[in-house]
Amino acid sequence: MNRLSRLLCVALLTCGMIGPVLAQKPVEGPPVPNDPVLPVKAKKAFTNLRIRRPVTITNAGDGSGRIFFAEQQGVILAVPNDPDVEEADVFLDIENEVRFNPSQNEEGLLGLAFHPKFKENGEFFVYYTIKKGLVSRVSRFKTMKDDPSKGDPNSEEVLLTLEQPFWNHNGGSIEFGPDGYLYIALGDGGSANDPQGNGQNLETWLGSILRIDVDKKEDGKNYAIPADNPFVDTEGAKPEIYAYGLRNVWRLTFDRKTGACWVGDVGQNIWEEIDIIKNGGNYGWNVREGLHPFSDQNAKPDAKYIDPVFEYHHNVGKSITSGYVYRGKKVPELEGKFLYADYVSGKIWALDYDYETGKAGQNYRIEEPSNPPVVCFGETEDGEVLMSAIFGEYGSIYEFVPAE
Question: Is the pTM of this model over 0.90?
């Protein structure tokens, strides 16, 4: 968004992720950390392209090296991995099927994932809001038979249909894990305070991360339930649920070296959090926000919550954008660090984490003078990390490079 928009928008600061950005007075709280600065910078890339609201960046893992930008309005663009490329190809256009309203901008095309065997089967998956009603959909598409470089908009096979009580908190991350299953991150349904108690309710998909097997079809569904999903034998629970107690995951990614599942869960009043997702884990919302009590309305006496890996107060930032553990080669200073940002403050960080102890280490700043409203990170086929910020209706793409 442009500077004027960031100053004047007021409505949805703590409700979601990609709603309006606004400047606010500092929030009282603990001292603002004086994080050390890494000798790394975010450099604009793909500057010859005009990309509308790029909310997902990914690759197909097919050896082509192509990078895919999913525009929230419903178009997926494909480009070679060349920051100087001058033209993008349209990979898929379903804009006529996608609901997107600039004043209710947590809907739209929100997720894109390529099948691990995309090169062989041409399958890819999309999460989007359908044109009519508050309804989200996860669908399988295939490439065109006569042109496998493009997706076929007529090949859609719907996997999941989710009715949403409100237009915000749609989540929308879809990613294949190292186990070959598709993970789907869903918000709590929206509004504020989780009014329907979805975060702690296993009888709804909302407020959860789902895990499904897209290579099988069982029980009349266009997918199957993995046998080790944690709630397959729990009466009344949705068997697709892998983890729950989440407010609005933005985004979900896997560490390509360890397989760990990282998410950023957007906070409401005071705290933003980073979690590593475990099978069957309850992450506390709306009983907790981060490590802190929020409401006892849906609390259960025997509930056990998994603590976030890291949290930060709203005097630092107000809407987390979760990224990747860096496993590329171009920026050795980032190796093994988790990249993330804050959409409102425009700050960018890299977090150390020790998998053996389960403890976060030093949090580092990556200085970027323009404080971009970062909406997503993406990973190229060779492990480099890209970043997207939205200014108005168009996005800017960044790559990470060593500081000069």
Answer: yes
Residue pointed to by tokens 């070679």 = 80
pLDDT digits (tens, 9 = 90+) for 223-249: 999 999 999 999 999 999 999 999 999
* φ, ψ of residue 26 in degrees (nearest 5): -55, 140
- Cα 170 to Cα 1, 70, 188, 218, 245: the distances in Å are 20, 16, 8, 26, 15
Extract the tokens encoding 194: 């989780």
Residue 218 to residue 202: CA distance in whole angstroms: 21
SS (H, E, C) the chain: CCHHHHHHCCCCCCCCCCCCCCCCCCCCCCCCCCCCECCEEEEEECCCCCEECEEEEEECCCCCCCEEEEECCCEEEEECCCCCCCCCEEEEECHHHECCECCECCCCEEEEEECCCHHHHCEEEEEEEECCCCEEEEEEEEECCCCCCCEEEEEEEEEEEEECCCCCCCCCCEEECCCCCEEEECCCCCCCCCCCCHHHCCCCCCCEEEEEECCCCCCCCCCECCCCCCCCCCCCCCCCEEEECCCCEEEEEECCCCCCEEEEECCCCCEEEEEECCCCCECCCCCEECCEECCCCCCCCCCCCCCCCEEEECCCCCCEEEEEECCCCCCHHHCCCEEEEECCCCCEEEEEEECCCCEEEEEEEECCCCCCCEEEEEECCCCCEEEEEEECCEEEEEEEEECC
The dihedral built from the CA positions of residue 231, 232, 237 and 238, taken in this order, carries a sign that is positive
* Residue-wise pLDDT tens digits, 156-198: 999 999 999 999 999 999 999 999 999 999 999 999 999 999 9
What does the alpha-carbon distance between residue 298 and residue 72 come to, in Å, rounded to a whole number? 33
Number of Cβ within 10 Å of residue 223's Cβ equals 22
Which are the contacts of 333, defined by CB distance < 8 A and separation ≥ 6?
38, 39, 40, 402
- Reference 384, options 369, 397, 367; nearest CA is 397
